[in-house]
Amino acid sequence: MPWAVSSLRLGRAWVAAPDPATLRARWAALAAAEGPERERLFRPSRARTPGAGAAALPGQRAGSTARFADVPGPRPDPVRILREPFDEQWLLPDQRLIDLARPELWRVLDEHQLFLVEPAQPAALLVTAYLPAGRIGRIRPLHRRPGGAEPNLAPGLQHLLGERYGTWVTPEDVLCWILAAGRPGPRGYEVPLTADATRWRDGLELGHRMLSVRLRGSRGGEAPRLPGGRRPYVRSALPAWPRELSYDPGSETLTLGGGGGDTGAGTVSPVPAGAWEYEVQGVRVLESWFAARLAHRDPEAEGLDAMGPAEWPQGWTTELLALVTTLALLAELEPERAAFEPGPVLDAAELRAGGVLPPPGWARRPASVLDHQEEGPGGQFALL
Questions:
Q1: Bridge partners of 267?
Q2: Which among 160, 208, 280, 297 is least buried, having the fewest CB atoms inside 10 angstroms?
Q3: Which of 223, 173, 216 is nearest to 193 (CA)?
C-alpha cells in the first residue's frame, strides 16, 4: 500500500467530541461570541486563527470559506471519525478550525473506502471505515480514488498474486492478508507474501474474520456478537454521571461508579477478561475510551473544551456494550493470529521481476483530482 498520509493534526481538542450534540453547542457558542471572547474560545495556533480563511473540505456540504472572524457561516454537520484506537467520535468538518485536515484523504472518503492505520510504535494495525482524525499513526487508504476505482496497491501486485494462487485477488483480500500475516519489525510493519496458495486461503479466512470484527457493523455489515449467545448488558442502571471505571475478573463485571460520596454504580456483565485487558501501545482501550468521555468534566477544562452533556447519554452505553464485544472477540482471535505462519514466501527477486518492486513514485502520491472544482479560501476555486 504505497500511498500513506501522516495523521491529521486537529490543533484544538474542542473540534472533536464523543457526541454530535456537544459539537453543535460548541459551534453555536463560538459563532455567537465576538471580538476577544471569540479569539479566546477559538484557541488560535500558528496554523489557524479566526482571521484566517481556508478551503472547503472536499465532499462536505458547502460552507463558508470566508474568514471565521467575518462570516462563521452555516454550522457543518458533524461527521463520524476514529479519534483514538477503537474510539469512534465526531468532528466538525470545517477546515478553518483544523490545523492540518489532510484534504487528500477527504477526497477519497466514501462508502467504499477503508483506512489502515499504522501506529508510530509497534502495535496492532487499526482498520476503520471512518476517517482517522488524531495522532494515531500513518494512514493508508485502501483506494486511491472515490468509488473504489483504483486500489492503493503496488502496481502489478494483484496480477502477480492472482497468477500464483490461481484466483482473483481483490484489494480487500490484500488488506485481510496484512491483518493476518503482518508483524511489527525493525523496518516498520512487515508483511510476508506467501508462495503457497493454501496458506493464502487460510490467511484470508482469518483476516476476513478480523476485519469483520474491527469494522463493527459499519458499511452495512452485521455487528459482531460473542459466541454461544453471550452478550454484555447493563445489570444495574448507570448513575447520572459515572466517574470511575473498575473491573472484577471473578464475576466478569465492569462497574461504572459515581465516585466520591455517591454510592450509586452501574454494572455491565459479562465482560470477558480479554476485553478489559485489551491494550494498544500499553493503554487499556476501555479505560482510554471512558476517560475521553469524562474529559469535559476535568476541573482544568476551559472554554469550549468544558462544554459537554450534563448526564451520561444512553448512546454511550450502547457504544460501550459494542466495544466490549469487539475487544473480547479480538482478544479471542489474537492467539490464532499470533500463531499464523505464512509458509514459504515470495522473495524480492520475484516481486521485482513481476514489476511490483519498487513501486513507482506516482503510486506514493495522491491520485490527480481534475474532475471537479473545490472552493478555496474566500470563495475562489482551489487549484488541484
A1: 236, 255
A2: 297
A3: 173
SS3 22: helix
User: What is the mean pLDDT of the segment spanning 332-346?
Assistant: 97
Greatest CA separation for the chain: 70
> Which residue carries 500558528 as its cell?
46
Residue 103 has a pLDDT of 95
Find how far residue 78's CA is from the centre of its chain. 15
pLDDT tops 70 at residue 376: no
User: Of 302, 11, 286, 17, whose CA–CA distance to 135 is shortest?
Assistant: 11
Contact by Cβ (8 Å): 175, 188: no
pLDDT digits (tens, 9 = 90+) for 104-113: 999 999 999 9
Q: Say how far apart CA 277 and CA 284 lie, in whole Å.
A: 6
- 243-300 residue pLDDT tens: 999 999 999 999 999 765 555 799 999 999 999 999 998 899 999 999 999 999 999 9
CA distances from 141 to 100, 214, 278, 284 (A): 17, 16, 25, 26
* Chain position carrying cell 465576538: 34
Give the phi and the psi of residue 349 in degrees, each rounded to 5: -60, -40
In terms of Cβ atoms closer than 10 Å to its own Cβ (0-12, 13-18, 19+), residue 139 is: buried
Q: In Å, how far are 35, 53, 86, 384 from 63, measured between CA atoms?
A: 22, 12, 30, 19
Residue 219 has pLDDT above 90, yes or no: no
Exposure pattern of 282-307 as b/e (b: 16+ CB <10 Å)? eebbbebbbebbbebeeeebebbbeb
Burial 31-62 (b: 16+ CB within 10 A, else e): bebeeeebeebbbeeeebebeebbbbbbeeee
Report helix, strand or coil for 311.
Answer: coil
CA distance 64 to 89: 24
pLDDT at 4 over 70: yes
Q: pLDDT tens for residues 62-114?
A: 567 889 999 999 999 999 999 999 999 999 999 999 999 999 999 999 999 99
DSSP 379: G
